[in-house]
Amino acid sequence: MWWWTSDLHLDHSNIIQYCNRPFKDVEEMDEVLIQNWNEVVGKGDNVIFAGDLTLHHKYDVVKSKYISRLNGNIIWIKGNHDYWMPKSSKYIDHRTMGSQFIVTSHYPMRSWNKSIHGSWNLHGHSHGMLEPLTNQYDVGVDNNNYYPVNLDTIRRRIKGVKD
Q1: In principle, which of 4, 69, 72, 79 could form an S-S bond with 139, CB 3.0–4.6 Å?
Q2: CB 96: neighbour CB atoms within 10 A?
């Protein structure tokens, strides 16, 4: 199965206030977000992570403290707070899933590859506070009850179908 998510902001205490997250402290937030991820993402699933895992700068710390605890085969897209990722990391992912062309990026786009032909832009960064364009969806945890979201759910939400 394929999943998308972004903007966990692990170990970022100020994000609780900035985004009005329902956690008493950063330790609770980190544990709930990792638990929610692993509750839905299986070890063999694929995850496209659209940026902003943590503010940490050192890859070794991020890997041991967070990445090692997350299920799935993760495709990383660099966000504006991903200091731990190499400078050569990708900022965008293009792929076709069935007949659907999908552009995943950290930042929401006004126009994207094949957008006039029905492609989707799946993004993070806006924490559920930006009105989406047609065929655009915010995959960030703040917009998805603090869980990753799968392709079927994204398809329903883009088409305006209630869960």
Answers
A1: 4
A2: 10
- Give the domain ranges of the chain: 2-158
Q: Which residues on adjacent β-strands are paired with residue 4?
A: 48, 149
Residue at 99: amino acid letter: S
Low-confidence spans in the chain with pLDDT less than 70: 161-163
Q: Whole-angstrom Cα distance, residue 104 to residue 76?
A: 10
On whether the CB atoms of residues 49 and 3 are closer than 8 A, the answer is no
Domain boundaries 2-158, CATH class: alpha beta
What is the biggest distance separating any 2 CA atoms in the chain, rounded to whole angstroms? Answer: 44
Sign of CA dihedral 58, 68, 93, 111: negative
Give the H/E segment covering residue 64.
helix 59-65
Partnered with residue 54 across adjacent β-strands are 10
**DSSP 8-state assignment for residue 25:** S
Q: Residue 137: which of 156, 154, 119 has the closest Cα?
A: 154
Do residues 100 and 115 make contact, with C-beta atoms less than 8 angstroms apart?
no
For residue 137, the number of C-alpha atoms closer than 13 Å in the C-beta half-sphere is: 23
Res 162: pLDDT: 61
pLDDT score of 100: 97
**62 in the Ramachandran plot: left (φ > 0), alpha (ψ -120 to 50) or beta?**
alpha
> CA 96 to CA 15: how far, in whole Å?
33
